[in-house]
Amino acid sequence: MKKNLATLAIPLFFSIGMSAGPALADGNSNRLFIDRDVDTFAVLPDGVRFPEGITANPANGDIYVGTFDGGAPNKLLRYNRHGQLVAQLDFGKEALLGLAFDPVQNMVYICNARALVDPSATPARSKIQRVPAAFNSATKPEDIADIPLIGAPADRVEGNPDGSSDTIKFGFGGTRAAPNALEFDKDGNLFVSDSFQGAIFEIKKVRTCAKPCVVDKFAQDPLLATAGFPPFGANGLAFNKDESALFIANTGDDRVLKLEMLSGTRKITVFSESLNGADGLVFDDKGLLWVATNQADEVVALNANGRVVAKLGEFRGIKRNGTPDGLLFPASPVIVGDEIFVTNLAIPLGSSADEPEADVTRWTISKMKLPNRRD
Predict the structure, then answer these.
(1) What is the pLDDT of residues 132-150, one digit of tens each?
(2) Where along the chain do its domains lie?
(3) Does domain 20-158+168-373 sit in CATH 2.120.10.30?
(4) Nearest-CA neighbor of 366 among 322, 301, 312?
(5) pTM
């Protein structure tokens, strides 16, 4: 279900000032770059639905995609740089969310969110796993750590213009762990967002820690939870270049948050707002933070001040073959070279048959050109 649906057609390509490209590189341009052109990189195999997490091998351009399907079957898929499916691994009812590629060990790390879609299973745990980059259908995923249940964060008090305030209570988080995104730091520590518990977890030295690895609560804050829609709080993660800050999407609150990583401080503040369904995050090499906005069906770039300086993609309807034309519920982005690849989750979250996600019968991965790389 979308929060809003566009009623006017948007031109295929529109840019306010084509000369904005070089200025966009440092995010200081006053011109908004808009490019609605979207290519389909790959169509998922028949019966495989709801691609969510995505990552890439920078050495050869392989793209990895995980599916988040409560009805199963869930798969980890590997595509080559040309969009050809070269391997798939079955996870059954164990739905997958965020992925991260580790170039040091040549491994793909996985958020296995079994507790979200199969809470009656024993044990009904969500966990972090990994597989070799060159996995095949017989590969057995390695369990790294279970995500602990720490309960919901404290209440959040929001002020109103008239001086009154409202208190938001978060009670759902203590019943299911919801690991949603992964991010490595330069020291090989792995950070994990939990959308229901309003938390960021850390697994120190994840490449070499004794299994099961210890999972530490790095941060838990009311700002990391949500009472909004879609009902996911802390989601996409991305470090800035010097790792002085970890940026966190809060999907239900339409925000990107900033967590200070400097010694002795873990302060969380709002970095950018009004990002309709902020989901996956990725920095480019120019310092722009790209955000998949799953309710706006576009990917936007934020400069150092949290201002939107570029918009890519749009939804144009459902094709005759049942695939989305353009972006539909874009969940996670990854950058390879001069292109950004995005999973089209295209999952119907509401009860209305009118939402376009209900008409999708084949699911896709899209790709778009980064604007600061154009000729």
Answers:
(1) 999 999 999 999 999 999 9
(2) 20-158+168-373
(3) yes
(4) 312
(5) 0.91
